[in-house]
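Dear colleague,

Following up on Tuesday's group meeting, I ran the structure prediction for the two-component complex that the binding team flagged. I've pasted the input sequences exactly as they went in, so you can double-check that nothing got truncated or mislabelled along the way. The structure tokens for the whole assembly follow below. Feel free to forward this to whoever is handling the docking comparison.

Inputs:
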Amino acid sequence: MIVAEGVHFRYLSGVEALKGISLTINDGEFVAIMGQNGAGKTTLVKHFNGLLKPSSGSVRVDGVETTKTTIASLSKTVGFVFQNPDHQLFSETVEEEIAFALKNFGFEPEIIKKQVTWALSLLSLEQYLKTSPFMLSGGERKRVALASVLAWDPQILILDEPTIGQDHEQKEKLRQFIMQLQTQGKTIVIVTHDVEFVAECNPRVILMKEGRIVADGGGRDILTNTEALAESSIVLPQIAQIFAKLDSFGFPKNVIDTYEAKELLLRAWERQQK
Amino acid sequence: MSVFDGLKFRKVYSPIHNLDPRIKFVYVIAIFVAAILFGEILPLLVLFLIQIPFVLLAGVKREWLRSLRGALFLAIFIFLTNLLFRWINAGYMLLLTDLEFSAAMTLRFVVLVESFSVFFLTTSPDMLGLALEQSHVPYEFSFAFTTAVRFVPVLAEEAQTIMDAQKARGLELEKGGFMKRIRNYVPVLIPLIVSAIRRSLELAEAMESRAWGAVKKRTNLYGLSLHRGDFVLLAITVVVLVLAIYVRWFVSVPTLSQLF
């Protein structure tokens, strides 16, 4: 569980990136943090594994104050996958890349071997065991980066812009993967601009603007809340855009799911036919 | 990475920012030479102090202090190694003069950092490129140079992100003995180098697609010309240099321990 209370954060340059953030993320929750560039999304999640420490206020992960522990020990519970895989890949083989964190955490060699195999198969990367990560395609590098964090099976997983540079098929795989992790009771926090992706996942959505939280609630409510979205410069998902305009025909406004939209439209059409 | 902050140019107007970069560079080199000429603490202290008016006049005190703080680690290192070798050389004994000599060597380094920091803080990369071009350096070289300078802060930022990414995978940079600590930086350096190479290739392609080098003879919107301030700085430079050389050869500089 992550509890943030009145978190303020100021960078050395003097920019105040967070202006009083309070929120609780429970175990097993799936949260999407959205907002325009510079809203403080990444700055906020960097507080969850102690990469940044609040200038004032507090962040507690499973009851432990982040200022009173190390990044390394927090990382064991909180896995953080960065936006750009090229910022972390350095090993000669994919296998070593994934074993890197496990070695840092001091796991036994047999366990490391087991976990590497497990993480590789989880993201269907088995055939690249001995390949150099630099030889892989962009999407594959992103998966290696993800596998290298999943390898130690952290309870909380933070994904910074996981859908950037991914084609639709990869995004769909990622979505299913996140859902699978969620059924295992993992807490997942994603930082993203991708409204369509969030609409398909329908997690809890937190909207941020200029270092503050402007809205927090279920995906279905937040992603159809025109005012709150406009305030944080996010466009409605396409389905929600259509239903916002069908309001006067007696359709509900808060639809973001393709399947639900189809059902509603089909039913209306059938009624017309009769 | 704070040492790089002390080299990052910010656009402001001050008498120092408006000086001709060529003259400023000559001044920095003069300070550099003067600092190398002396191994005694007194003249180095003078060299250190005469730069402070420049810093204040340019209004870059905060950034400048940050660059000095960034150089602190290396300064301590220089001090300790000097002390160590003086101690070994003197047959495992330490005198006050050794302490003073080590301090002087450290101060020499600080003076160098200080003067380069002032130069880079008050000279925009564009002006630097212009200065090189007008000094008849081929455009390819001057462009490469200014690009390199311009990308230092970008790389510094990237290095920070990479460090964060590796720390999130349990890397502890400060852990272990001396050799282990150096090895700890491998997971940071490799992605940094790879991404720098990638970035340079992308930059090259972007430049080619904008017809870089299509015209052999280039013209500039702004030209450099010398103003009164530049002549004043030139005069100061000459005085510093002449004085330094005179003192070096004709005056015996006392050490602090001789004075007291």
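Residues 2-212+230-242+249-254 of chain B form one domain.

Cheers,
M.
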